[in-house]
Write a structure and sequence with these properties.
With about 150 residues, this protein is mainly alpha-helical. The chain has one domain. The chain is about 50% helix and about 10% strand. The chain is built from eight helices and three strands. The protein has a three-stranded parallel sheet with strand order 1-2-3, sandwiched between helices. β1, α3 and β2 form a beta-alpha-beta unit. α7 packs antiparallel against α8. The longest helix is centred in the last third of the chain and has 18 residues. One of its GO terms (biological process) is cilium movement involved in cell motility. InterPro entries: CFAP46 (IPR039586). It comes from Zapornia atra. This is CFA46 protein.
Length: about 150
Amino acid sequence: KEILEKYHDLFTLQWQGVTGNVRVPSQAEWEQLLTNCSAFLFYGMERLMSHILLNRMVAMNIPKCHLMIVLDLVRSKESYQRITNSDIHKSCLHIAIERPTETAMVLSLAGVRCLIANQWYTTLGENAERLEILSENLMTIGRTTGQTVRILQK
C-alpha cells in the first residue's frame, strides 16, 4: 500500500483493482480487470494462475494490456495449505501450466505485450523491493521495461 500511495499521482489516476487481503477477487473481477487494463500488476501469494480459472484465461483476448508485472511465488503456511487443497483437484498438466514459463506463454498468447515476472519462489520483502525498483524506474525516472529489468538483474 505504501508503494501504491507513493506513486499514486504518477500515471495512476485510473488505477483500479483489489488490494489487501479482505477478499479474493471473483473470476468475473479478474476478467474485467484484465480485459480493461493497459497495465496489470499482480502482487500476491503463490502462483498467479492458481487464482484464475485456466480455461477462462486461455480463451481471453487481452491485447490492450501493454505491460503485466507478476510478483507472485511467495509462500506462507496458509497459502501453501490453500494451494495444496486446490491442487488435489487439478491434473498434473493443469498444475504444470501454472509454472512461470508456462504462465508467460499463456499470457503472451492471450495478448499481453510485455511481461515482467518471477521465475523462482521468493519472499514478500523481496517482492516489495522489486516493486519499489520497478515503480521508481518505470514511473519516476521513465526508463524502458528492458532497462528496468536489467537493473533488477543486477
